[in-house]
Amino acid sequence: MMEEAASNKNIMNAKHPATNGNKDGENRKLAVWEEALIQEFLYAIGHLNHCEQHLIEIDSSVGLPLFGDIVNKIREQRKIIGETLFLIEKLETMKGSSIRTSWESIWCTLKHLTTALIHVDECIEKLLNRIGDDS
Q1: Is the entire prediction scored with pTM above 0.90?
Q2: Cβ distance 52 to 79 under 8 Å?
Protein backbone atom coordinates (compact mmCIF):
# COMPACT_ATOMS: atom_id res chain seq x y z
CA MET A 1 0.00 0.00 0.00
CA MET A 2 2.86 2.38 0.79
CA GLU A 3 4.42 1.66 -2.63
CA GLU A 4 1.09 2.45 -4.28
CA ALA A 5 0.84 5.69 -2.31
CA ALA A 6 4.39 6.66 -3.34
CA SER A 7 3.62 5.82 -6.96
CA ASN A 8 0.39 7.82 -6.80
CA LYS A 9 2.26 10.74 -5.26
CA ASN A 10 4.68 10.70 -8.20
CA ILE A 11 1.73 10.78 -10.59
CA MET A 12 0.19 13.70 -8.70
CA ASN A 13 3.51 15.60 -8.85
CA ALA A 14 4.05 14.96 -12.58
CA LYS A 15 4.45 18.08 -14.69
CA HIS A 16 1.77 18.72 -17.27
CA PRO A 17 3.40 19.20 -20.70
CA ALA A 18 1.22 22.21 -21.56
CA THR A 19 2.66 24.25 -18.68
CA ASN A 20 6.26 24.28 -20.01
CA GLY A 21 7.54 24.50 -16.45
CA ASN A 22 5.52 27.64 -15.68
CA LYS A 23 4.73 27.26 -11.97
CA ASP A 24 1.53 29.35 -12.04
CA GLY A 25 0.30 27.61 -15.17
CA GLU A 26 1.20 24.26 -13.65
CA ASN A 27 -0.73 25.03 -10.46
CA ARG A 28 -3.79 26.13 -12.44
CA LYS A 29 -3.70 23.01 -14.63
CA LEU A 30 -3.32 20.76 -11.59
CA ALA A 31 -6.20 22.50 -9.79
CA VAL A 32 -8.47 21.98 -12.80
CA TRP A 33 -7.30 18.38 -13.14
CA GLU A 34 -7.87 17.69 -9.43
CA GLU A 35 -11.33 19.25 -9.47
CA ALA A 36 -12.36 17.31 -12.58
CA LEU A 37 -11.00 14.07 -11.14
CA ILE A 38 -12.89 14.52 -7.88
CA GLN A 39 -16.10 15.28 -9.77
CA GLU A 40 -15.71 12.11 -11.84
CA PHE A 41 -15.20 10.04 -8.69
CA LEU A 42 -18.34 11.58 -7.16
CA TYR A 43 -20.35 10.89 -10.30
CA ALA A 44 -19.11 7.28 -10.35
CA ILE A 45 -20.13 6.81 -6.72
CA GLY A 46 -23.55 8.31 -7.45
CA HIS A 47 -24.14 6.13 -10.50
CA LEU A 48 -23.15 2.99 -8.62
CA ASN A 49 -25.52 3.98 -5.84
CA HIS A 50 -28.34 4.39 -8.37
CA CYS A 51 -27.57 0.95 -9.81
CA GLU A 52 -27.82 -0.55 -6.33
CA GLN A 53 -31.15 1.15 -5.72
CA HIS A 54 -32.64 -0.02 -9.02
CA LEU A 55 -31.59 -3.62 -8.41
CA ILE A 56 -32.98 -3.52 -4.86
CA GLU A 57 -36.26 -2.13 -6.24
CA ILE A 58 -36.45 -4.97 -8.77
CA ASP A 59 -35.85 -7.53 -6.01
CA SER A 60 -38.62 -5.91 -3.96
CA SER A 61 -41.06 -5.87 -6.85
CA VAL A 62 -40.59 -9.57 -7.71
CA GLY A 63 -40.30 -10.63 -4.07
CA LEU A 64 -37.06 -12.54 -4.62
CA PRO A 65 -33.44 -11.64 -3.85
CA LEU A 66 -32.32 -12.11 -7.47
CA PHE A 67 -29.68 -9.38 -7.50
CA GLY A 68 -28.32 -9.54 -3.94
CA ASP A 69 -24.87 -10.75 -5.03
CA ILE A 70 -24.60 -8.08 -7.72
CA VAL A 71 -25.71 -5.37 -5.27
CA ASN A 72 -22.97 -6.48 -2.86
CA LYS A 73 -20.36 -6.36 -5.64
CA ILE A 74 -21.50 -2.89 -6.66
CA ARG A 75 -21.25 -1.75 -3.02
CA GLU A 76 -17.69 -3.08 -2.84
CA GLN A 77 -16.78 -1.22 -6.03
CA ARG A 78 -18.32 1.96 -4.63
CA LYS A 79 -16.26 1.49 -1.46
CA ILE A 80 -13.06 1.10 -3.51
CA ILE A 81 -13.82 4.28 -5.44
CA GLY A 82 -14.43 6.15 -2.17
CA GLU A 83 -11.17 4.86 -0.71
CA THR A 84 -9.33 5.97 -3.86
CA LEU A 85 -10.90 9.41 -3.62
CA PHE A 86 -9.75 9.74 0.00
CA LEU A 87 -6.25 8.53 -0.99
CA ILE A 88 -6.01 11.31 -3.56
CA GLU A 89 -7.18 13.88 -1.00
CA LYS A 90 -4.59 12.54 1.46
CA LEU A 91 -1.80 12.76 -1.13
CA GLU A 92 -2.76 16.36 -1.87
CA THR A 93 -2.69 17.19 1.84
CA MET A 94 0.75 15.57 2.14
CA LYS A 95 1.97 17.90 -0.64
CA GLY A 96 0.97 20.82 1.55
CA SER A 97 -1.94 21.88 -0.59
CA SER A 98 -5.60 21.36 -0.04
CA ILE A 99 -7.95 20.69 -2.91
CA ARG A 100 -10.76 22.50 -1.17
CA THR A 101 -11.85 23.60 2.27
CA SER A 102 -14.56 21.80 4.23
CA TRP A 103 -17.05 24.53 3.37
CA GLU A 104 -16.21 24.25 -0.32
CA SER A 105 -16.82 20.51 -0.05
CA ILE A 106 -20.19 21.11 1.59
CA TRP A 107 -21.10 23.58 -1.13
CA CYS A 108 -20.01 21.15 -3.82
CA THR A 109 -22.09 18.41 -2.21
CA LEU A 110 -25.13 20.69 -2.15
CA LYS A 111 -24.52 21.55 -5.80
CA HIS A 112 -24.49 17.88 -6.73
CA LEU A 113 -27.60 17.18 -4.66
CA THR A 114 -29.52 19.98 -6.35
CA THR A 115 -28.34 18.77 -9.75
CA ALA A 116 -29.55 15.28 -8.87
CA LEU A 117 -32.91 16.73 -7.83
CA ILE A 118 -33.26 18.40 -11.23
CA HIS A 119 -32.50 15.09 -12.95
CA VAL A 120 -35.06 13.29 -10.78
CA ASP A 121 -37.68 15.91 -11.69
CA GLU A 122 -36.85 15.40 -15.37
CA CYS A 123 -37.20 11.63 -14.98
CA ILE A 124 -40.59 12.00 -13.31
CA GLU A 125 -41.76 14.34 -16.06
CA LYS A 126 -40.62 11.92 -18.79
CA LEU A 127 -42.28 8.97 -17.04
CA LEU A 128 -45.55 10.86 -16.63
CA ASN A 129 -45.47 11.85 -20.30
CA ARG A 130 -44.82 8.22 -21.28
CA ILE A 131 -47.65 6.95 -19.08
CA GLY A 132 -49.93 9.59 -20.60
CA ASP A 133 -48.93 8.48 -24.12
CA ASP A 134 -49.72 4.83 -23.32
CA SER A 135 -53.22 5.63 -22.03
Answers
A1: no
A2: no
